[in-house]
Design a protein that fits this description.
protein-folding chaperone binding (chains A, B, C, D, E, F, G); chaperone (chains A, B, C, D, E, F, G); 103 residues; metal ion binding (chains A, B, C, D, E, F, G); homoheptamer; GroES-like_sf (chains A, B, C, D, E, F, G); mainly beta; unfolded protein binding (chains A, B, C, D, E, F, G); elongated; six-stranded antiparallel beta sheet
Amino acid sequence: MSASKLKNIVPLLDRVLVQRIKAQEKTASGILIPEKAQEALNEGYVVATGKGALDKDGKHIPTQVDVGDKVLLPPYGGSSVKINSEEFLLFRDSEILAKVTDN
Amino acid sequence: MSASKLKNIVPLLDRVLVQRIKAQEKTASGILIPEKAQEALNEGYVVATGKGALDKDGKHIPTQVDVGDKVLLPPYGGSSVKINSEEFLLFRDSEILAKVTDN
Amino acid sequence: MSASKLKNIVPLLDRVLVQRIKAQEKTASGILIPEKAQEALNEGYVVATGKGALDKDGKHIPTQVDVGDKVLLPPYGGSSVKINSEEFLLFRDSEILAKVTDN
Amino acid sequence: MSASKLKNIVPLLDRVLVQRIKAQEKTASGILIPEKAQEALNEGYVVATGKGALDKDGKHIPTQVDVGDKVLLPPYGGSSVKINSEEFLLFRDSEILAKVTDN
Amino acid sequence: MSASKLKNIVPLLDRVLVQRIKAQEKTASGILIPEKAQEALNEGYVVATGKGALDKDGKHIPTQVDVGDKVLLPPYGGSSVKINSEEFLLFRDSEILAKVTDN
Amino acid sequence: MSASKLKNIVPLLDRVLVQRIKAQEKTASGILIPEKAQEALNEGYVVATGKGALDKDGKHIPTQVDVGDKVLLPPYGGSSVKINSEEFLLFRDSEILAKVTDN
Amino acid sequence: MSASKLKNIVPLLDRVLVQRIKAQEKTASGILIPEKAQEALNEGYVVATGKGALDKDGKHIPTQVDVGDKVLLPPYGGSSVKINSEEFLLFRDSEILAKVTDN
């Protein structure tokens, strides 16, 4: 899915659109891992965020995560949506457990 | 259903009236898709909105979505209403997951 | 039921008394519709309203609907009450989904 | 039960003591209605009220109903109490659905 | 149980210690009532009260009932405690339904 | 367990660490009471307290109980923790029912 | 797992990342304890903390625990996450029962 396509999804309030990282289908040495043995990963990339929830003065509270962040996802929750036959998840910003940085 | 007819439905507070987009009944090449194989779509168009929920000073907080917006709907929730034998859904503004823009 | 009788019911706080519109018993051409085929209507008329819920300063917040309004009712909820062997429903003002205007 | 006896019950906070109106045991023409056919009435008389719930400054918010009011009761809820082997109900003031006036 | 003993129980916050009034074990004429026929009474005496719940400024809100008050108890709730093999009940002040005065 | 050891447990916020008083294993005259006949006691001693919950300005609200207090425990709730193979209970300060004073 | 690796996990808001202390696998004298007899420990080390929950002015409230703290964990709750095939737990700061200090 091209990044340009996802620009068209604008999550509302404090929602963030996340794409789950797919489990590895091959071992490091290239051997295919049968689907049942693939570990369900709880990591994903933020592909779009809302402007944030409203505070009592009607202003948006910025989200804790930004587009491009690698994040830890909670084991349950989130609304599954299908965009161009790819699966995405919408979470509340406050449901995202942690950011994962690579350096 | 003519647009003029729907002008007569005035959602209250932060409710928005949505018409779900119907699943495609034919493939791109014109072959009919049997009903069971049609994918349930979670997209719809906003056809009417309320003035918004009341804040603690009794003023209406404007809704996040407007008439004509294409939106992503949550997988459950919403009150189903029938107007002129067509099915519509009433959601709280804050339940709408995201806007979908086409450019 | 005469309107004068219903003047005697004074809903408290933000409650509104609604009379559900009965399903059509005949088709446009006058043929009787068997009871099972009659569609349960989710529309009603507001016959009485309370002064509104209390805000934190003890003042009544006016209801969103008024006596005479045609309204869309939620699919569940409301307290059923019988007045002179006619069925009425008491809803919270905020539970009423939408107003229906006829022009 | 004499009114003087009930003066001794002082509901606390926003509670109101209600005596349910008994269902008619005879038809207008004097024929006894068997107990099963007697309609359960959701009307009662307020026999005592508390001083009202406390607001955030510690002052009592007056109840919406007064002693002597004929009221519509919700279909469930309320604490049943027995005073001198007569049955009474204690409701929160805000649970009372409506007042019924007779003129 | 001597009153002096109960002085040693100091309920915390808005809790009140209540001793349920025992059901009559004899009729007015002195005949013993079998235990099963004894009516469970929902009345009791307040034997100790806390200083009250804390308001947002950290001050105690005085309880609605005082030591010595005869009160109506809710049909459920309360924590049962045993002091010197006698049964007592701890309720939140706001759970007590009503005071019963004897004059 | 030496008191010095328990100094090392620092409950967080409004939590209090309590050691339940063991049921008597002998009668006053020294006869052993079989374990099943021993009454489960709902009394304990506070062995450590947190600094208190945070108010809206971020300050700690002092707990109602202090180290050394003899207290009445609720019949359920509390987190059981094992320290040096002895059983302790962590309660929220507001869950403690009452203090028990001995004079 | 090297400490440097865990620097990459940044819990959001008031979440804290904890590694549970493993149960002893040998007795003091070196005899292996069979897995079933190993006691499940409710202690852990804080390996990362978020900046804290947001107060109503949008500022972070500092967490009660810090990286390196030895803590008592609640018997249930927490989200289990796997980082480099090691098990970690994410808790809300306010769910951590107590700190354990060793001096």
